[in-house]
Amino acid sequence: MIYDKKFEKEKKLIINSFKKNKEIKKAAYNFCLAAAKYKYTYNFSWFGVPIIQHPEDLIIMQEIILEVKPDLIIDIGVARGGSSIYYSSILELLGNKGKVLGVDIDYRKHTKKVFKKHYLKKNVKLIEGSSISSKVANRIYNFAKNYKKIMVCLDSNHTHDHVLEELNLYSKIVSKNSYLVVFDTTDGLYSAEIIKKISKKYKFKPFSKKSNPLTAVKEFIKKNKNFKIFFINHFYQPNLVIKKIN
What we know:
By secondary structure, the protein is of the alpha/beta class. It has one domain (5-244): Vaccinia Virus protein VP39 (Rossmann fold, 3-Layer(aba) Sandwich). The chain has 9 helices and 9 strands. The chain has a 7-stranded mixed sheet, sandwiched between helices. It is globular and about 45 Å long.
């Protein structure tokens, strides 16, 4: 529910104006670049659990979740557990008994500790394995078939082929008028030299100018007219939000 429709209307006009605002685009680009270079997103936690996200993105995710009111959020790329605990807390506030399905290729000791002891783990189910393996995909499909409103968040391996395969696999279970959020698409906006430097700072398979979440989204959208990219960010857009419209 929107409690102040006049404010909401004004907010949307301001957000739309950012598309053509060169000053704010430049500031956004510089901030995102610095954030990536110096691991800014590692500075935060949610309910005591590290959450490797921009704080502003968490507010936006809350807005999306409130709009959709999903009964299932599929969180691919759990890392230290903060994102799954965050989604669980928002669903808890909604009171709709929604669940989070966390998927990661390898749950480390510190992450297992979170989901063994944290109060908000009660809303979370975990699957371990590669998100693009048929075995894991089938487990996700089987779990999701019991839910009606489904959101999907992709934040695992950031290479083109991996993200594109995730998009093809999990776009099928996103509900109409719900969202598929692809994280770190700004990685595709930087020069090849900058991307090479940034990718070395993170302990996962390096992405590149021709192989990153943005290139994957662009290819996916060309072939999938049931989805549309939405510009919903308040200042910068490090993640692309794709809405299922048909």
